[in-house]
Amino acid sequence: MTRTLLVVLLSALLLLTSATASAGLKPVEEAFPFQIEQIAENRLVATWQIAPDHYLYRHALDFSLEDGDNEITDVTIPEGEKHHDEFFGEVQIYRDFLQVHIETSQPLSESALLRAEFQGCNEPRALCYPPSVAEARLDDPSTVTVSGGRGPGSGGSDPLTGLLAGGSLWAVLGGFFLAGLALAFTACLYPMIPILSGLIVGAGRAGERPGTGRALWLSFVYVQAVAITYAGAGALAGLSGRAIQADLQGPLVTGLFSTLFVLLALAMFGLYNLQVPAALQSRLQNASSRLPGGQVAGVAAMGVLSTLIVGACSGPALVAALAFIGNTGEVALGAGALYVMALGMGAPLLLVGTAAGRWMPRSGPWMEAVKQAFGFVFLGVALWMAARFMPSWLELLAWGLLLLAAAGWLAWRLRRAQPPTAEATPRPATPGATPRVLGWSLTALIALAGGAQLLGAATGASDPLRPWAVLTGDDRAQARAQVLAEWQTLHGGEPALREALSAAAAEGRPAIVEITADWCVYCIQLEERTLPAQQVREALEGVEKLRVDITAMSAEDQELLRVREAYLPPAILFFDASGEELRDYRIAGFKGPDEFAEQARAAFER
Q1: CB neighbours (10 Å) of residue 129?
Q2: pLDDT tens for residues 307-336?
Q3: Any residues with CB less than 8 A from the CB of 106 and at least 6 apart, and which?
Q4: Rounded mean pLDDT of 412-430?
Q5: pTM of this prediction exceeds 0.85
Q6: What does the pLDDT look like over 379-410, one tens digit per residue?
Q7: Residues with Cβ within 8 Å of residue 456, at least 6 apart in sequence
Q8: Mean pLDDT (whole number) for 489-500
């Protein structure tokens, strides 16, 4: 156990130490100060004063002008220093100073705005900044605004992306810890609670509870396994341009995970024990407990699996870190941010796991009953995972049968635990009467919930949390279906999307693209709560609405994610009337109706 703890702590220390070496970069506006000067009525000079030990890429330079019908006709960029870059190969770079001459088709007005795109690196640290944009107006050339946000998956309004690009180490770690803490209370992370609780429940040997200290230790191992897996998978995803968690959301892998939880449930019911082979047990610190029963290696393995199962639901924080790694190649800081984010996600789990060890009943028959109860919980996790590939009626039917089975099992346990009465006369209340009343009340509630699921399956409801919705006329799934009827759903990957965008541009219409999947919880929330809202529909009036379904995660779907530089669904992309993406307005993850409508109006300038 001590050796395992040392390995976990050393892995975490290496991540944070590497991240420390990555932090403390100058802000981009200090590393590459930018200014413009008008030298003729239709000529500008753009100048960068490049900080020592920094350089700019020639191939990353691009210029645009906002000045009515005026446009740039010629850009003169001097030859740069030849440089071999491990990511871009043979390139040209500039050190110390760069001056670019720009000529326009008409005389420049006083309100003309020049926008310059660039990217630079810090040479001693071998770290690069995300692609950045500098803007300066001719009427006040001393006022320059510099921002990131042209990088993959990033948005100019995303604070986590900006934090990674220019924040101090402690600001980055603190910001991502808080983001992880917020994620701990979202629906995507709920399955981790019964998984960890079930592992703690199984930790006792021979009908004994594991105790507070062991429960805390196992919870710590579980959370560390989640955090290290997040960091490692995030680093690989950022460098490869593909999110590993998304690749594991297809029906085959999900089916295997669901089967695993069914097997764990059957072990909790006592049908068999999942044993690690004896030869391997001695190498794993002579662990002799059952895999679902708290063995350190088993708990760590379940932490890894949990990350792969729910990791695709981690929203903007995960996407920001993946985009940062993919953009800059700066693995240490991005992976360290993901590690700390996972620690924030896991903080409540430490409390849950410790409480499970402290408040479980002591040794005796009830310990076996608690383990069996968590067998039903594991079956629920298996059903939750498999439900994304089921028709709605079958999902509600399955939940109804599972809940009714749990109610029947609980009633059976209560009848076994209730002592027989030999006489018909009333007996005085006993200390065990109150728990029995609570037990029967819980049984009735579970049975009622199961009956509600069956009713929902019979009436055509689609949401297990709202099985009565059809009868009350408040079915979110129906509202979602009505809204999505206005969206054109595309299959066929990047070629299909490119064709649809070209058609919209030919008609002079802006477009919005939703990249979505049936297994994506945030996608369902977005389509049920946000898109049907009146303010969102008004903001998108006259806009071509395109929906790309990547549920199957086929080769075409993965190619689309790579080309569009989107790591995980949901991703919302905005395109102007010419078919160019407005990258600064891209949305990753769930947004409520008001925030979404505001972003859409800003993107389409309404």
Answers
A1: 25
A2: 766 655 555 556 666 655 555 556 677 777
A3: 42, 67, 69, 70
A4: 61
A5: no
A6: 887 888 788 778 888 989 999 999 999 999 99
A7: 396, 400, 463, 464, 466, 467, 468, 469, 470
A8: 90
Structure tokens at 160: 């986590």
Name the helix (H) or strand (E) containing 46: strand 43-49
Tokens of 325: 């790694």
Distance of CA 267 to the CA centre of its chain: 31
Q: How far apart are CA 39 and CA 559, in angstroms?
A: 46
Reading the block at residue 573, the tokens are 């992309």
Q: Are 514 and 570 in contact (CB under 8 A)?
A: yes
CA dihedral 181, 11, 313, 519 (to 10 degrees): -150
Inform me whether the pLDDT recorded for 154 exceeds 80.
Answer: no
Decide the pairing of beta strands 120-122 and 140-148: unpaired
28-148, what's its fold?
Immunoglobulin-like (2.60.40)
**In sequence order, what are the residues at sequence separation of 6 or more whose Cβ sits closer than 8 angstroms to the Cβ of residue 534?**
none
C-alpha distances (whole Å) from 401 to each of 395, 397, 404, 449 are 10, 6, 5, 10
Q: Kindly write down the DSSP assignment for every residue of 82-130, as one continuous string.
A: EEEETTTEEEEEE-SEEEEEEEESSPPPTT-EEEEEE-EEETTTTEEPP
**Domain at 477-603: CATH code:** 3.40.30.10
From first CA to last CA, the distance across the chain in angstroms is 61
Please give the single-letter amino acid code of residue 567. Answer: Y
CA distances from 528 to 188, 206, 474, 476, 524 (A): 16, 48, 12, 6, 6
Q: Residue type at 426?
A: P
State the pLDDT at residue 406: 92
CA–CA dist 9, 3 (Å, integer): 10
What single-letter amino acid sits at 444?
A
Name which of 172, 64, 49, 184 is nearest 117 in CA terms.
64
Strand partners, 82: 92
d(CA 197, CA 178): 23
Task: Please give the Cα distance from 210 to 216 (Å, whole number).
Answer: 10
What CA dihedral angle connects 413, 414, 419 and 422, to 10 degrees? -110
Burial of 311 (0-12, 13-18, 19+ CB in 10 A): buried
- Residue 89 has a pLDDT of 67
- Contacts of 462-469 with C-beta under 8 Å, sequence gap 24+, read 462/392, 462/396, 463/392, 464/387, 464/395, 464/396, 464/399, 467/396
C-alpha closest to that of 51 among 110, 143, 124: 124
- Which amino acid makes up residue 422? A
The encoded tokens of residue 235 equal: 């680093």
User: From the CA atom positions of the chain, what is the Rg in Å?
Assistant: 29
pLDDT band at 306 (very low <50, low <70, confident <90, very high): confident
Average pLDDT of the residues in 192-210:
63
Among 520, 480, 512, 475, CA closest to 597: 512
Under 8 Å between Cβ of 102 and 46 = yes
pLDDT at 484 over 70: yes
Query: Mean pLDDT, the chain, as a whole number?
Result: 75
